Amino acid sequence: MPQPTDYPLFDQWYRVTNWLLARCERMPKHTRFTVSGRMANLATDTTELIIAAIYTRERRELLGRINLNLEKLRFFNRLCKDRRYFSVTQYAYLAREINKAGAMCGGWAKSQEP
Fold first, then answer.
1. What share of the chain is helix, strand, coil (3-state, %, to 5)?
2. CA pair distance 29, 11, nearest whole angstrom
3. Architecture of the domain whose range is 4-111
4. Quick one: which of 65, 73, 71 has its CA closest to 42?
5. What is d(CA 86, CA 94) in angstroms, rounded to the nearest whole number?
6. Are 42 and 73 in contact (CB under 8 A)?
7. Is 111 exposed, middle or buried (0-12, 13-18, 19+ CB in 10 A)?
8. Which of 26, 28, 98, 106 is at 20 to 30 A from 40, Cα to Cα?
9. Lowest mean pLDDT among 10-14, 20-24, 97-101, 106-110
């Protein structure tokens, strides 16, 4: 039986989610139901999708949904930088990690092709 920790994408995204949740908790309270709440939800939803992809053979749709969530997170990351909720350094870190997750997800999707 596969374990989530056997998958590099899971390990990488777990670290990103942990980092992002800590940042969301420090955002201004008035962003709780908008920006920070959406980012936290997208990060945890993405984690759930990765876990679901690990435990199923039909991964294509799930990997597509993961990529869509990553794209949404790119938007919110940029918005946080522009509104100064994130520093430029924090923005750059999250952008790199989202791109890395996207590349890993794309590689996983390619390995599923017949």
1. 80, 0, 20
2. 29
3. Up-down Bundle (1.20)
4. 73
5. 10
6. yes
7. exposed
8. 106
9. 106-110
Distance (Å, whole) CA 24 – CA 88:
16
- Which residues have a Cβ under 8 Å from the Cβ of 94 and sit 6 or more positions away? 16, 19, 20, 73, 77, 86
Amino acid 1: pLDDT: 67
Contact 20, 94 (CB under 8 A): yes
- DSSP state letters, 87-109: -HHHHHHHHHHHHHHHHHHHHHH
Give the distance from CA 8 to its chain's centroid.
13
Radius of gyration over alpha carbons of the chain, in Å? 14
Rounded to whole angstroms, the Cα distance separating 80 from 82 reads 5
Whose CA is closest to 59, among 8, 1, 112, 11?
112
101 near 9, Cβ under 8 Å?
yes
- Give the pTM: 0.92
